Amino acid sequence: MMEWQFINTGLHSGNFNMEYDIGLAEKLQRREILQTLRVYGWKPWAISLGYNQSELDIDQHKCSEFGFDIVRRPTGGRAILHANEITYSVVMFADAKSVTEVYAEISRSLVRGLQRICPEVSYETSQPNFQTLYKKQESIPCFSASARYEVQIDGRKLVGSAQRRYSSDGLSDVVLQHGSILLGTEHKFLAEVLNLENKDIKGKILEDIEKKTIDLSTAVQRTVTFSETAEVIRSGFEETMNIRFHNNIEAVL
């Protein structure tokens, strides 16, 4: 049985959340902490951009009007509006596992836990051509398409995740993977703050988000809370990856 730490940092700003995830990865590289599962939320709501995504994809003036943070993730992928959701992050040793192997392992853990709330939760088995997809403005939102092993309900994306490897001479190879688990429908508001050359595309993007995504509360027709979801995620990792968690004092931050 592996010894990990579980951290619930609650609601914080975009910069705090991304810097905290990076800090965990760097500490694990130096073997200063245990492998970690962290859950957190966002206050105020925030747009996070993928590591290589252009800031021009987002209307910064509108974000300011709505009071949204804008932050860049250390991982790849596309824009996400972090609103009514619970975000997870996993910081673990790579142990010679491929990106896909780690992604699948984490997805299995998420699915096992989330099935306690909604038995229909599963993961995607096919893979879109992202090189072609990302050339289209419709692909600006992260939730516009599901990658292999991303978590879904009846073919509609529930969790959007991204991964990064940290490798340095003399330090351990570490994986940081984090992702958004939708609790409500507020993520759809992302369409309102995109910079679009063709305004007609906004309707197409909103239609795609409506058709291709689902949140837990809608799926089970009741309000699913942050704390409830945090507990089942923790259980899913314990059971799937044979982990014993230690609560860390950092959880009170």
SSE diagram, text form:
Blueprint: E1 2-12, H1 14-29, E2 35-42, E3 46-49, H2 60-66, E4 69-72, E5 80-82, E6 85-93, H3 99-114, E7 121-123, H4 130-133, E8 151-153, E9 156-157, E10 159-166, E11 174-182, H5 200-212, H6 216-220, H7 226-241, E12 243-247
Parallel strand pairs: 1-2, 1-12, 3-4
Antiparallel strand pairs: 2-6, 3-5, 6-11, 7-8, 8-9, 10-11
Helix pairs in contact: 3-7
Please tell me about this protein's structure.
With 253 residues, the chain is an alpha/beta fold. It has a single domain (2-252), classed as 2-Layer Sandwich (BirA Bifunctional Protein, domain 2), CATH 3.30.930. The chain is built from seven helices and twelve strands. The protein has helices spanning 14-29, 60-66, 99-114, 130-133, 200-212, 216-220, 226-241; strands at 2-12, 35-42, 46-49, 69-72, 80-82, 85-93, 121-123, 151-153, 156-157, 159-166, 174-182, 243-247. The strands form three sheets. Strands 10-11-6-2-1-12 form a six-stranded mixed beta sheet, with helices on both faces. A three-stranded mixed beta sheet has the order 4-3-5, sandwiched between helices. Strand 1, helix 1 and strand 2 (35-42) form a beta-alpha-beta unit. The mean pLDDT is 90.
